[in-house]
Amino acid sequence: MLKRKRIYCALVMGVMAVLCLVAAAYGLSDALRENIYDVGQLKPIDSVPKLKVGDEAPDFALPAVSGGKVSLIQYRGKKNVVISFVPAAWTPVCSEQWPGYNIAKAVFDRYDAQLIGITVDNIPTLFAWTHQMGKLWFPVLSDFWPHGAVADKYGILRSGGVSERALFVIDKKGIIRYIDIHDINKRPILDDLVKALEKLKK
Q1: pTM exceeds cut of 0.90
Q2: Which of 157, 171, 172, 195 could be cross-linked to 152 through a Cys-Cys bond (beta carbons 3.0 to 4.6 Å apart)?
Q3: Are 18 and 86 in a shared domain?
């Protein structure tokens, strides 16, 4: 038990170091900042949850920026999955959140977790945005048509037609183990996600 606590403390310290690196390295670049649309302050949460921890995660197959389609079921029995829904391309918080996950890739690898990014934007918009941000190691998917259908399945489609800023951790059996429907105006805390992934090992 003591050994596990020491390992966990070391992991948390490592995550905090990652967070510091992310904060330092992933402010918006000048080139990206010129193209960012400031949405202002929005209602923190504007949806009615449909899913809870312990539910089976709804499957989906969505087009990816890299080509083809990516489905949730393709990871069944192979990988834990973290789905990151963000509201919209070319907006400030989203443009900092996803590049930050590049530095944190080792965290996902440690827990055998595949990150998937989803927005309601169309593929050309996502192509331009992700290329402006730099290469992302995880697939970025378009929930554009039927518009927001996957976000709606997950109970996070806002009244304005974009998704909430949300994280879902799904285990290798396809069961939801963690949900964070976050204040749309703020980035989720990586340490909370790490704690959720740590529980998958128990």
Answers
A1: no
A2: 157
A3: no
